[in-house]
Amino acid sequence: MTSNIYLLEIAIFVLGFFSVNLDLAACANFSEVFELNWAPHHIISEGDQIKLTLDNISGCGFESKKKYLFGQASVQIKLIQGDSAGTVTAFYMSSEGTNHDELDFEFLGNVSGEPYLVQTNIYVNGTGNREQRHALWFDPTLDFHTYSFFWNRHCIVFLVDRIPIRVFTNKEENGVLFPRNQAMSIRGSVWNADDWATQGGRVKTNWTHALFVSTFRSFNIDACELLPETDDILAQCGKLSRFWWDKPAFDGLNRHRSHQLKWVRRRHLVYDYRLL
Ligand SMILES: *[C@@H]1O[C@H](CO)[C@@H](O)[C@H](O)[C@H]1NC(C)=O
Ligand SMILES: *[C@@H]1O[C@H](CO)[C@@H](O)[C@H](O)[C@H]1NC(C)=O
Ligand SMILES: *[C@@H]1O[C@H](CO)[C@@H](O)[C@H](O)[C@H]1NC(C)=O
Ligand SMILES: *[C@@H]1O[C@H](CO)[C@@H](O)[C@H](O)[C@H]1NC(C)=O
Ligand SMILES: *[C@@H]1O[C@H](CO)[C@@H](O)[C@H](O)[C@H]1NC(C)=O
């Protein structure tokens, strides 16, 4: 009986949460969707892979040409192999300006053989300081893994290989701001952050190990795209019930996914700003 319920939950989870995404699984054409906005010469396009490189001269980055409000964005990344201490690889979404909103995945490198950490953060109206850090249950340098943002008016979910590692729930009724008024572009970058990234900044980037390379592929964006001629974001992307992510099934995590999140928090959470 229990296992039947479990299977049913998995079925609902698969059908509910990802059917739309899987049906539309065609990946975005990188050069159509993104532009290179920092050190284009450090970005190498190889078949369906985009290699972001860091050396002692520069890091690099890309940004989507369009901005989005609500939906889902994922990418597969294979992180810098070997000694990646001092480096950060980022997959993030951000709006512009000092009162910007931002959602971050930041992958903090480490010396060879020591584990990467994934730092997530959320800025609302220019204020961040909501860091969480997780260890991963696999070596993210050996193969590609999928990192995704899911975002609607009720919650923001950070997923790793479709497993939720973090949920930020809309608590506006308690006076906590929630990012729902600013469209964000989707971005990726690699840079040197050896003043803080690895073991609290104690381990510096060893430049004799450059070139540092993180590889991105399989960009998948299923989100409300803000048309440039529109300034009424909410009329365009904020209308209820227009998109799949507004269905009640996506107001929060279902039971199966809540179990997954609990497992991740119990086994892999290493830092949470709320638990200081
Ligand atoms: C992606 O778009 C560019 C520019 O439109 C085009 O030249 C290229 O062939 C496309 N690549 C693929 C894999 O479709
Ligand atoms: C950067 O690295 C290159 C290649 O290792 C080296 O020749 C050069 O001296 C370095 N430059 C600086 C400013 O460290
Ligand atoms: C956003 O921050 C600015 C100050 O940086 C403040 O004036 C404004 O009221 C804030 N917006 C909201 C919705 O709280
Ligand atoms: C790097 O490895 C050390 C030692 O295992 C660990 O304490 C640390 O959390 C790891 N990650 C980072 C980003 O420092
Ligand atoms: C940097 O890497 C080189 C080559 O592996 C090694 O000889 C050197 O000791 C490293 N430097 C530091 C500061 O760890």
Features:
binds 2-acetamido-2-deoxy-beta-D-glucopyranose, 15 strands, disordered N terminus, XTH, alpha+beta, globular, Jelly Rolls, cell wall, hydrolase, 7-stranded antiparallel beta sheet, 276 residues, glycosidase
Describe the overall structure.
One of its GO terms (molecular function) is xyloglucan:xyloglucosyl transferase activity. It catalyses: breaks a beta-(1->4) bond in the backbone of a xyloglucan and transfers the xyloglucanyl segment on to O-4 of the non-reducing terminal glucose residue of an acceptor, which can be a xyloglucan or an oligosaccharide of xyloglucan. Keywords: Apoplast, Cell wall, Cell wall biogenesis/degradation, Disulfide bond, Glycosidase, Hydrolase, Secreted, Signal, Transferase. It holds the Pfam family Glyco_hydro_16. InterPro entries: Beta-glucanase-like, Beta-glucanase/XTH, Beta_glucanase, ConA-like_dom_sf, GH16_AS, XTH. This protein has 276 residues and is of the alpha+beta class. The protein has one domain: Jelly Rolls. 16% of the residues lie in helices and 38% in strands. The strands form 2 sheets. Strands 1-4-13-6-7-8-9-15 form an 8-stranded antiparallel sheet. A 7-stranded antiparallel sheet has the order 2-3-14-5-10-11-12. The longest helix has 22 residues. The chain is globular. Bound molecules: 2-acetamido-2-deoxy-beta-D-glucopyranose (NAG) (5 copies). The site of one 2-acetamido-2-deoxy-beta-D-glucopyranose has 3 residues, from helix 2. One 2-acetamido-2-deoxy-beta-D-glucopyranose binds next to helix 2.
